[in-house]
Amino acid sequence: MTMSNEQDIAENRNPGPAEETLDVQELQAALAEAQASAAESKDLYLRALAELDNVRKRAVRDIEQAHKYVLERFANDLLAVKDGLELGLSSDANADALRAGTESTLKLLNKAFENAQLIEISPQGEVFNPELHEAMIAQPSAEHVPNTVIQVIQKGYQLNGRLLRPARVIVAKEP
User: Fold this and answer.
1) What percent of the chain has pLDDT over 90?
2) Mean pLDDT of the chain
3) CATH code for 118-175?
4) Cα torsion at 128, 134, 139, 145 (round to 10°)?
5) What is the fold, at CATH topology level, of the domain defined by 1-116?
6) What is the three-class DSSP state of 97?
7) Which of 2, 3, 37, 122 has an alpha carbon 20 to 30 Å from 89's alpha carbon atom?
8) Under 8 Å between Cβ of 163 and 131
9) How far is CA 63 from the centre of its chain?
10) pLDDT single digits (tens) 38-77
């Protein structure tokens, strides 16, 4: 090695006091910048966390309000049905008037079901579907195609595509 290379190496190993101060100042500035950046990131994180919590609480509150509103609307529809039944029971009407009142009350109830998106399943004459129907009896029949519903014992109902109660039916089988 030459003398100048040795001097260069020696200078690189042992920085002078001015260079050492400059490096410390750069490191302190970089540290301060990193700390400021970390504080800003922490602040943004805490704000995002608080906003997420607020959104969650708002969603829970909105769902509760939606459930209450739906039940309130359905209850209001059923009040008209109850009023009609009470009026029919309190009157001294003849059989024709009672029948007309009962039909009117049934129309109100059907309207309430329609508003609540409650769909009636009455599969008379349809092919038996075990997902929507419950076979009570398999009856031999030469008049009907096997595996078809020949009588509905009790209608079924769906709410928003979900089965509430299957239709109870009598199904035809080969004689």
Assistant:
1) 49
2) 85
3) 2.30.22.10
4) 0
5) Hemagglutinin Ectodomain; Chain B (3.90.20)
6) helix
7) 122
8) yes
9) 9
10) 999 999 999 999 999 999 999 999 998 887 777 788 888 8
